[in-house]
């Protein structure tokens, strides 16, 4: 007679344990989902530039690098950033971004920010391939916050190999250096572009981008 109640109690405890484990697993899944639900950053990735210091270039007085190889570097960078899930990538060359390049982007002190801003980006990325020899090169990438103009990441790496490997090199640089660095940085809130006054509360609310903080008006005591 006692066997049935005892077995029932054992099954009940096992059932409770399974429920607890399931609940913990669900909480972990929800936490992971919330972490991955962070809004993607809009980033404008510009075409990479070339700094050819190779002996062949010096002797011939012109670069020996294929323009197609340089184009593939930019394409690889855009794909790798998009694949991370943390970025919405904008290609300025495909979005009607016209701007005069009196200087190389690496030398213009952040002039690409204005172009990136017109395209609705929050960040910009410029890159450089510095060719030292036919089988030795550096890759350099720089990420800038469009709203503040501040450089938030700059990474470089040296690789051995010909230009056919440049696209692979930039993928490695982004995966192993750039993404870990930017992931460790706190995401600054997007600047509010368009604010509206809530007719009920009377408070200013940002409508573009939705929910971004609105800077408070200056206090009455502020004579400036």
Explain this structure to me?
Strand 7 (194-197) and strand 8 form a beta hairpin. The chain has 3 domains: 9-37; 41-183, TolB, N-terminal domain (Rossmann fold); 190-214, no CATH class. The model is unreliable at 1-21, 26-35 and 218-224 (pLDDT under 50). The protein contains 5 helices and 8 strands; from the N terminus they run αββααβαβββαββ. Strands 1, 2, 3, 4, 5 and 6 form a 6-stranded mixed beta sheet that branches. Strands 7-8 form a two-stranded antiparallel sheet. With 224 residues, it is an alpha/beta fold.
- The rounded distance between the terminal residues' Cα atoms is 88 Å
Fourth-tier CATH superfamily name of the largest domain = TolB, N-terminal domain
Indicate the radius of gyration in whole angstroms: 26 Å
CATH class of the largest domain: Alpha Beta
Low-confidence stretches: 1-21, 26-35, 218-224
- How many structural domains? 3
Which whole number gives the mean pLDDT? 77
Sketch the topology as an H/E string, one letter per element: HEEHHEHEEEHEE
Q: What's the CATH topology name of the largest domain?
A: Rossmann fold
Q: Which CATH architecture of the largest domain would you pick?
A: 3-Layer(aba) Sandwich
For the sheet with most strands, the description reads:
6 strands, mixed
Strand content: 15-25%
The number of helices is: 5
Class by alpha and beta content? alpha/beta
Helix content: 25-40%
Based on Cα principal axes, name the global outline: elongated
- Total strand count, please? 8
